[in-house]
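Sorry to interrupt, but I need a hand with the structure work. Could you write out one complete protein record for me, on any chain you like? Could you add the entry underneath, on a fresh line?
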Amino acid sequence: MVSVSMMLARGSWRPFRRYLSSIWRIMSAAGPTSVVSGAVQYRDTGRITEQEIAVSPTNQQVATHAFLRGMYEDGYFPDHVVDKGKAILLRLCERIEAERPSDLAALYVLTEAATEEFNTLEADFEAAGSGIETTAREMIAEDFWFVASAYGFAEADAEELVAARDW
């Protein structure tokens, strides 16, 4: 992989500059309105266009982890809804990396918000003829603990991580 400094040292800065200019034009055209799971959404006079910008967790354990694998393997859980659950967990990782919680209390605030998103997702599961039942609860809670552990909070209480759950 060629780094920016290597490109500049070789004098091939023009393509990089064009690339940055194009990104800047996209971003400054209307200004970002929100970031949703690695996609920055821009509002432009009433219509929303989505520009994919890769924002993935930098933690290697997280980057290679197969979130909610058991739910994907079970036909009872529709993949398009499980995808939403995976996105919730990835957003949690992004928030942990951005906010860098200093203690368990700060981590629990972040996991509570993600748990609330799963509470809302329950309606999507039900609409698809599924639900967050015992097996799913365990898989989701395990992935919350995995995230906590991957970011140095192995002592986190698994029940406390999802204490706000309605499922």
